[in-house]
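To: structure desk
From: M.T.
Subject: fold request, one chain
Message: Could you run this one when you get a chance? Sequence is below, nothing fancy, just the single chain.
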Amino acid sequence: KSKGEVLQQAKSINLSLLSLRRVITSLVKKAQHIPYRDSMLTRILESAVGGNSVTTIIICVSPSSYNLPETTSSLRFGMYTGSITNVAVQNVVRSTDELEELLRKLYKEIEAALITKKKLEIEVKQHQHIVING
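Reply: Done. Structure tokens follow.
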């Protein structure tokens, strides 16, 4: 049996693995809330298991019949995690020139939106004037 510090470490590991299981279950079920903050392990793995990355999980198994329950549990866990679908998107690094061009385009879009807003405000005032003076 485990005693003292070893027992506390075993408890912490099991709690972290339980938290990881809850995160994976939430991801598989596409839940609105994913409990990444429940443990340090899930916080560290957040970007790997549910973020912008391709994730590989390696399952260690044993051919020994003594380890059959642990091996079976690990394989089930591996199959379950295979249901997670991440959409990896390549991060793009843009040059200063590209960013300046993008900024110019956005300023033009904002300017066009402001002009449209002014026109609509004028139309609303004209419509109100017609309704009031009818």
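Reply (cont.): The mean pLDDT is 87. Let me know if you need anything else for the meeting.
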